[in-house]
Amino acid sequence: MKYRNIIFVCLFLTACATQFTYYSTLKNFISTETYDKADELIEENKFKEYGEKNALIYWLDKAIVLHYAGKYEESISAFGKAEKLAEELYTKSITEEASTFLVSDNERSYAGEDFEKIFINVFQALNYLLLGKYEDALVEARKVDHKLKTLQVDYGGKNVYKEDAFMRYLTGLLYESQNEFNDAFISYRKSINEYNTNKKIYTFDIPQDLLIRSLKMAKKLGFKEEFEEISSKYKLNYKYKDYNIDSKDGEAIIFCYLGFAPYKIDHYIEVTFGEGWTYVGSVQVAGDEQKDVQKARQIARSIASDEQFLVAFPKFIPSDNKVKYAVVNVYDEKNNKILSQKTYLVEDIETIAIKNLEDRIAKIKIKAIARAAIKYALSREITAKLTEKSDDSTKWLVKKMLQTVAVATEQADKRSWRTLPKEIQMVSLQLKPGVYNFEILFYDKDNNLLQKKWYSEIKINPAKKTFLITRCHL
């Protein structure tokens, strides 16, 4: 018994190390843009690293790698499977919650964080946008809106991530591309409001391009009052009567994915048995687990309230990302540089992930502490049986061994969608119709050049938008 438990702990820790190595390799393939190798690695590990319990993460990783590779149709198919599975797992978790309380979260199928389910549709919208399927992209935008409204109901309006300002911005671009200016104006105004008011997530300035677009739509629609309100409130200093919107220029809009999303670690706290046991009454159990809880209640009376046990919770920490921003240089057909512009932040996925987990951490803590308290009590009975005829030293050794195994089996659920970018930046370039070459330079926080990319023969059509995606995952 003693050695079997020790072996179990070693195997558990080895599995954690193996997963770390796997994601290091996968991220390296993504960073070097060897996407075929990244996809091959994911397929090779479909059962070994992912398996049935991590099927959702498999589809998320596969879908985003295909998106990075520009295989948008294949990415759409993979994201579709991820979305369907996430919905099935959410429904299943509701029906099974009371009957699987004592099962560690790591033993359950991963159903995804709230924000991860929303970003399925964000990237689906981008997939369709880059294929020129604007109506399909708008369908995904509406799904984002619906999911966020559902979250507000689930959290009683107390959640931080209630709206997605970037998705509203993107929706406005979709409407504007189809000359649906009223809907574009509404989307831009909602985006501005979210960037302006939700400073827990959007800690950066409202994109200047977004403000200018809202003025442009207001002028097109003859909304003088709204035009002047926006211009005055955000100190744009534009006058309605002097504002010209008759340009026949085209536009290049570049979305820039930087870095990798944060990942989870164990965050441990010590809880006294007396404090931990108070949480047991707040949980619901059913089936065979009722017998275990009843037995634990009987044993609990014999345990000193000041005895302590460890409980682990998941905590997001930032990935070690080097890139800070990009600069886009535009060259004409004669290779003359005609424009240079810096990217600006539109979506901070890292902050959204951290705040979204904080929104539900209270529920995670209640469940984790209650489960750990029950298992701590039950382990006392096992210790007593194993050491019934043993001396004090053996009793102490067995007790410590069982506590070690308990800590190993009560590791926090650290699974997450780790191949998401850390953030999305953007740049909008007003250009006369023609063919251009784009040079994109990526810099760190100290303005050191990290990487260069070159995009040749990008065609700009009159009064049309051309969309492009670039990446730097250093």
Report on the architecture of this protein.
Mean pLDDT is 88; it is low at 1-15. The protein is built from 15 helices and ten strands. The strands form three sheets. Strands 6-7-1-10 form a four-stranded mixed beta sheet. Helix 2 (35-44) packs antiparallel against helix 4 (55-68) and helix 10 packs antiparallel against helix 11. It is elongated and about 90 Å long. The chain has helices at residues 2-31, 35-44, 46-50, 55-68, 72-96, 114-130, 134-154, 165-177, 181-197, 208-221, 224-233, 273-277, 289-300, 349-386, 392-409, and strands at 250-258, 263-272, 308-317, 323-331, 337-342, 344-348, 423-431, 434-444, 449-460, 465-472. It is α+β, with helices and mostly antiparallel strands and 474 residues long.
Short description:
The protein has 474 residues and is α+β, with helices and mostly antiparallel strands. The chain is built from 15 helices and 10 strands. Strands 6-7-1-10 form a 4-stranded mixed β-sheet. It has a 4-stranded antiparallel β-sheet with strand order 5-4-8-9, with no helix packed on it.
Oligomer: single chain
* Topology as a string of helices (H) and strands (E): HHHHHHHHHHHEEHHEEEEHHEEEE
Structural class: alpha+beta
Number of helices: 15
- Ranges where pLDDT stays below 50 over 5 or more residues in a row are 1-15
DSSP summary, beta strand count: 10
**Shape, per Cα inertia axes:** elongated
Helix content class: 40-55%
Strand order of the largest sheet: 6-7-1-10
How large a portion of the residues is in β-strands, by DSSP E? 15-25%
N- and C-termini, Cα separation: 47 Å
Mean pLDDT: 88
Question: Taking Cα atoms only, what radius of gyration do you get, to the nearest Å?
Answer: 27 Å
Question: Largest sheet at a glance?
Answer: 4 strands, mixed
